[in-house]
Automatic annotation (TrEMBL):
Protein name in UniProt: DNA ligase
Entry GO MF terms: DNA binding; DNA ligase (NAD+) activity; metal ion binding
EC number: 6.5.1.2
SUPFAM superfamilies noted in UniProt: BRCT domain (SSF52113), DNA ligase/mRNA capping enzyme, catalytic domain (SSF56091), Nucleic acid-binding proteins (SSF50249), RuvA domain 2-like (SSF47781)
Keywords in alphabetical order: DNA damage, DNA repair, DNA replication, Ligase, Magnesium, Manganese, Metal-binding, NAD, Zinc
Binding-site list for Zn(2+): C403, C406, C421, C426
Phylogenetic lineage: Bacteria, Candidatus Uhriibacteriota
HAMAP family: DNA_ligase_A
Residues reported in the UniProt entry to bind NAD(+): S83, M84, R136, E171, K309
GO BP, sorted A to Z: DNA repair; DNA replication
General function of this protein: DNA ligase that catalyzes the formation of phosphodiester linkages between 5'-phosphoryl and 3'-hydroxyl groups in double-stranded DNA using NAD as a coenzyme and as the energy source for the reaction. It is essential for DNA replication and repair of damaged DNA.
Location of the active site: K115
Amino acid sequence: MTKTEAHGRINKLKELIEQHRYQYHVFDRQTLSDAALDSLKHELYQWEQQYPEFVTADSPTQRVGGQPLKEFSKVRHEKRMLSMEDVFTRDEFEDWHTRISKLTQRSFHFFCMPKVDGLAVSLVYENGLLKTASTRGDGDVGEDVTQNIRTISSIPLRIKEEKGRVEVRGEICFPVKEFEVFNKKLVRDGEKPFANPRNAAAGSIRQLDPKVTALRKLSFVAWELVSDLGQKDMEEAWQMLKTMGFRTVPESKALTSLQAAEDHWHALQKKRDALEFWVDGMVVRVSERLVYESLGVIGKTPRGLVAWKFPAEEATAIVKEVEWFVGRTGALTPVAVFEPTWIGGTMVQHATLHNMDEIERLDVRVGDTVILFKAGDIIPKVKEVLKDLRPLHTKYVQAPVQCPVCGSDVVKHEGEVARYCKNKRCFAQDRESVLHAARAFEIEGLGPQIVAALLEQHLVHRAPDLFTLVPEDLLALEGFAEVASQKLVAEIQSKKEIPLSRFIVALGMRHVGEQTALDLAVHFGTLAKLQQATLEDLQSVSNIGEVVARSIEEYLGKSYHQELIADYLRHGVLVIPAKTLQEPGRLVGKTFVLTGTLSFLSREEAKEHIRTLGGSVSSSVSEKTDYVVAGEEPGSKFKKAKELGVSILSEQAFLAMIHA
Ligand SMILES: [Zn+2]
């Protein structure tokens, strides 16, 4: 971005953030998620760091809180109530540490406390009595909420410090459990529930009638002793606050190293759902009072503390490009590409846009700022486009007419949204098919790059070829030494036994996911029976409708696929039959021999399973033995089975066979 463009961007960000903050602080109305707003604020902050000449007094990074409501009388803070700078990554946290370390020659500790999310208030006591309680307001002037605050039992009305003026700051919060009860009641009464405990706390304190506030079970936790009562550091301040009768922010501690602070951050993040209050990060503060104060203030944030936020499930990013990904079925999926963005604890730079309909629905264009969200998946999705931030020149997303990988024509079938590459031998499709099979066989260490290289070197054409690889083949690939080659080949060979349901997944039939594969396995029991199934048979499988049945029939009917299955078997893949519902005695006529120590079952249990399913157990291996189940440290029976060519099952494979 040029300087002029950055200036324009800064102005747009300021306007949008301000608009949402106004709605939020003045009307308690949340129009954008906290995470998305934080993300925008963070971007603005970074631009302002790069171009300090564009920092203006009205920038959202320069203000705290919001305008006080007219109904409350005003309180001027003796000492400004500042806000905090957010950091999102360990790198940013380290940068902060480096910055302040350069500014002070003195050593200091970190005081780490959960960032309890509620409404910040300042309590002023005179000669031991609570005189005023006020909100942060714009940092200089807040609202007088003394009457409402008095209804909160965790706030002492009198403190032991009898002389002079004492100021304590902290957070009014709604305990999560109380919040849930309260919100349910609102819904029952036909009222609108609050978005989160912070909103509810803020809304409750700013009630004009203290009686309403009194009914809500709010708490107060102190996080700062503002007055100088001789405390040297935060630990001493904590002790004094407790002596005065305040509850301090729980789970707080003084730590010495960056690593210890990071560990505490992780620990808090892990148990955040179990904490009494809603916590969205950890505040790290220079513990020693004199060092903290000497660091001073930059803009409207103190240099001596920082809020290290927990990973948010939402973030904002600018779409740089839209690329088309070719899947194993040849379907083209649009993927938005953006600068590396931190979301849900991982760095991502792609988000799926699904298809052209979705692109049109979102009206997303290249150059747009979007809100990304993660909903349990690894790949984030685009939630909405922030049209207020749309630049003058955006580029519409065009559906490709040619496959971006092989250049073949792209087709769109009647009644379907997706577009497909016409070329059945498209490199991208081959690569994705092999990758898909490798995942179904649970082969570790076979990523997209290696698969692409195997295809390019003609070592593998289709997935079954993976099982023919020998270490020498892999040596031809870049970066493959002898040990790595042997390791990967051994890994592939160790995954040759596969339960029927996983094998069906590996085939990659259209419309057949894991659940359908399981249904098919349970219904047909063996691969041979599935291969012989008619359309009618397929339609009689529970949960399988006509479209899916047709897709399976079509797949199995093609010679290309029949050869593929034959290749798997020829290359030594052993498909373990599934336990069918129709045939409880499906091991009838099969003879088993057990050897070695089993870890999940006792021998007796294993024998019982075999007999229940109609099989028999023998104590010695002969030509008549169908399977030898080999546990840990198998004995001579294992050797004999090998000599006679009897099928040998690992305990895992045996378990899959009886439980499938
Ligand atoms: Zn193609």
